[in-house]
TrEMBL record:
Protein name per Swiss-Prot or TrEMBL: Glycosyltransferase RgtA/B/C/D-like domain-containing protein
UniProt cross-references to Pfam families, sorted A to Z: DUF6020
Domain of life, source organism: Bacteria
Alphabetized UniProt keyword annotations: Membrane, Transmembrane, Transmembrane helix
InterPro entries hit by this protein: DUF6020 (IPR046062)
Region described as Disordered: spans on this chain: 624-675
Membrane-spanning intervals of the chain: 38-55, 62-79, 99-121, 159-180, 228-250, 262-281, 287-305, 317-346, 352-370, 575-593, 599-618
Source organism per UniProt: Microlunatus ginsengisoli
Amino acid sequence: MARLSPLLAAVGALLAVLAIYSEPVAGPLLFTLRGPNASAVVVFAAFTAGGIWTLRRASRSAWRWGLGLGTLFAAAQLIGWSLRTQNALLAPLLTADHLVWTVVHFLGTGWMASAGLAALIQVVDARAGRVVGVLDERPGPVGRLLSALRSPRARPRRIGLAMVMGIFVLSRLPYVLTYWPGIVFFDTFRSYSYARGTRPWDSYEPVGSSVLITAFQWLGTTLGTGDAGGVALAMLTYLLAASAAFTFMLWRLAIWGVSRGLWVFGLCWLALLPIFGMYSVSVVKDVPFSIAVTVLLVCLGELSFGPPASAARRWPWVLLSLAAIVAFATRNNGIYVLALALPILLGPLWQHRRHVLAVLGVVLIAFLLYRGPLYSALRVAPGPEDEAFAVPLQQLARIADDDLDSLTEPDKQFLTRIFGGMPPDQLGAHYVPALADPMKLGARKAWFQHSTGELLAGWASLAARFPGTALAATLANTVGYWDPDAPPYDGPNWWSDNNVRDIHLDIPSGRPASGPAAAVLASGLVPTRDYRNGVHDDGYRAIPLLGSAMSPAPVCWAWLISAALVARRRRPRSLALFVPAGILLLTCLAGPVSGGQRYTLPLFMGLPLAVSAVALSVRSSGRSPRRAALPAPGAIDLTGRAGSGRRLGVPSDPLDAAERGSVEQPAARRSAPAP
């Protein structure tokens, strides 16, 4: 294999360059290649050198996992491209004119992804001691900040927490000043209609979120600040709560012993990514829900990677329960996430099964009180039932559009009845592959003219007869979550809606004509959205890396790859935080939108946890890397495998010290000056 490495690496690099430098339009390969490009030579040389290194250094295990994930990645990209551009599965790409282009793109993308992942796995395996397992006590601002967060003394620890919290709040100030008093989403006006009594309460909007809007509306009125004051209070509350959740995450990551590089990545990701800045000034149900899920994930990380005494303390379980309650109260899919996640967590957290069952019991009691006395007091009526049937309705609409000539007369009568009298030959004009709302609204008109059983029986019959069309409908309605190149369907609003559902808020609304907000829109960085096609097709999407970082699909892939690398360590407890995240994604796949940014906002927020879990699972697996890494100068060895540092296991948790009432500091820290 060593002799063939240069040849294999060169072939893979050539395929990768052809895939990169051909136009993203299927056709004869030679006609889709761009003109002479000097950068292609540099890319080819770099890919060849990287391929040779990976082929010679990566273990068989690294290559097995890399090839598996890389092949899946390439297939997802190709199928997603076909659905987004051709509105069909792979059939158009397998014609004679397109076949070579298709094969080259699949092999080139697959090689890049497979080699890159194999190299990543090898680096994590071989340099585990530098990734995690060493407390970096070298001087510098970051080192002093980490030392403060890990300090067993209350004063420096509080200073460190205040500094991190301050960084997040300061990073949001430009957004607050630009969009004061906040941006109110279209959906939020339904909650305002409940608060003002212009429509009866129902569960279309999560009742907990509507209660929050009602409280802020009352506070704004009581304090004499009116609508603007109520919106500003909501915006500032959400901003401070998100900053506190991010601070909590970074504090626990420091306690768990992540490296300086991973910790800085988490800080930069959470402080600088524009999606967090925009949602910090947005008044919408997804923000409190995402904050709650983030706290829940940190608590699960604490049970997986925290100090050994973590599971015996009360606070992780109490905070886990509170976060779960807020999650189901502020977004309707939250209860589905928890109903599935908590029982499944009994697997990876089996040794703590009594605590997990206790949390499950607390959440169940809270949910019964939520759906019982609270609903009764507010007279909450059921929301539209069609909201839960996005998948079958999209499949029925696509079958009517693609297979009209194969439908029988009873089939056509069934579809006409389901979609409120609209005949099947007209459904295609209203069907949007990436958005289920038009079909849901059509079905809502006639929802009570048939039973749910009748809908499901007719859908099952048609889906069984046209399985390919049904599959294409579901893939087209979810492609934004799994195609690495897919743009998001939606994103943050750039101005407030108003005069929605007979509600007028006395706040700036509509497209701003002047001021900083108008300058942002005029910059060209704000993506446009075609509601019909449902894509962000320009703006920040054109900026390398930023466009991918702001899109749900790459973030979902980062979670999937992290989960796979953690699973590779065969330590079930390390997978605990991936359970609710995975189930949340499943609810998105069953939802009405392909690639919703705000639907996957908890995955954006929790990404530092997923990435850190890979390194933390290396330490926790107890497996020695193939090449032990020496601790950096000034570092404390946590593994005891290399160097002369003192064996510590994991960083001591200041909460443990507080419970004991005394602190026994490692010798390497006693002489360190207080930050």
